Amino acid sequence: MADDKLDAVIVGGGLAGLAAAYCLADAGRQVLLLERGDEPGSKNVTGGRIYLAPIRPLLPGLFDDAPFERHVVKEALTMVDGRNTTTLSYVQDRWRHAPYMSYTVLRLRFDQWFSARAMEKGAFVVPRRRADDLLWEDGKVAGVRAGGEEIPAHAVIAADGALSFMAEKAHLRQPLVPSRHAVAVKEVYGLDSGAIEERFGLDPGEGAAHLFMGSITKGRFGGGFLYTNKDSLSVGLVLGMDALMQGSEQFDVPSLMEEFESLPEIARYIKGAELKEYSAHIITEAGVGGLSRLFTDGMVVAGDAAGFALNMGVTVRGMEFAVASGVIAARVIDEALKKNDFSAQFLSLYEKRLRESFVIKDMETFRHTADVLSNPRLFTVYPACISSLLDAVFTVGEGPRKGLYRSAMDAAKKHAGPWSAFKDFLSLRKI
Amino acid sequence: MKVEEKLTRNAIRNAKESHIRLDQTICRTCVERPCVRLCPGRLYSQSPETGEMVVEYAGCLECGTCKIACVRKSVSWEYPEGGFGVQYRYG
Known about the structure:
With 431 residues, chain A is α/β, with parallel strands linked by helices. Chain A has helices at residues 15-26, 107-120, 165-169, 193-200, 241-245, 253-262, 264-270, 319-339, 344-356, 358-365, 369-373, 381-394, 404-415, 418-427, and strands at residues 6-11, 31-34, 49-51, 71-81, 84-91, 102-104, 124-126, 131-137, 140-146, 149-158, 181-190, 206-214, 222-228, 232-240, 274-284, 295-296, 299-301, 310-311, 316-317.
């Protein structure tokens, strides 16, 4: 093209931005990615695990040699009632065989690798460069401003994360409010791989994903997680912001995290392990109702910046949405470059493609999950009820015991009225 | 382990100036102070000398919690300049 504009500039070296850079460079486009951290991954935090099945077909073969941590073969869910815990553990033999369904992941290692693949294809990845503002031309986005420099481009991809300043500046993002967000806190503990496999009952290379719910969040929306990496463990809490800010009891986030890591069910896994890093980030919990507008003249929004994240309780997804939206954004912008049309009307194709893909389809399917999961009984009444029931089943004390049926009814009556329990059961049909 | 100790494990390159600014006229009227409880780094406190709210930006995890939790909009928060702030080595 006979002008001084880049084909595309991408803001943010996370999975959405890197996937877009990889694809545009692969299509022979001149693409520049700005990353404000020391390198892609330096500012990124995940829980985390990534589900590969949805994104493998989008980038065939690419992930075969990616530096994932462990493939997950074991899922566990622990309901916490004070210091009492009920754990359900599930191992699916299919997950032990390639192609693996999901992997645990650490972002610096993974994003560095992804960035190197994009650069091999010809993308320019510029670290330590923050995008400060958008460039406008006749009311249309025409590039970005970074460190006093103007970078004109035919198209901008805003992939600058859940706080997306670029989407805000283009008036695409919804206001950031506590009711739509949770705060996630994570610790990484170094532990050698042999100890990890022994403590979690895993074969070499295998991983476990362990989620926690109940009184760890003091009856509020949220939960805990514990993931096995190659030679470290990721331990963390997700806490709904609205729930934390309301109510008469005052809890603070660092103390809740301290309490969580001292829970025997966590402490025994991290015993003797060294804390390597303490990180945090906000995550969007609003689901499909919280999405930003996805395009405007000269710009599209991808990944967390657009609100592509889905908390379904036992499965939490975001990274595969980021990769998929980055790939789809790149394909649409490649077509826009062919037609030399960067109008909002043409770029609406991006939203159309996303609606046809698993990204928005899954978010639509699980539209009501956030409402169902915000029911405080899930975090108080039910874990306590299950704990009382199992206490009655397993404890042998002095004197004659009650029948099991009677014990179950007593536990249910003590903790949950039959009517509220029935309503909660019905609400599960929505998810 | 206390959060102050946890923060020492992070790699951070501090900019000279804070990327977080507070509007003390708003802070003075705020009774809930969600920033104090919600900041995962426990970086917000009230100065015992001046009574003003202070934030230790040097430990900032760049999570964005205060930006959202401060519903009175006292917190103006932007990303530190390129290459500054927390540099996660695991993430």
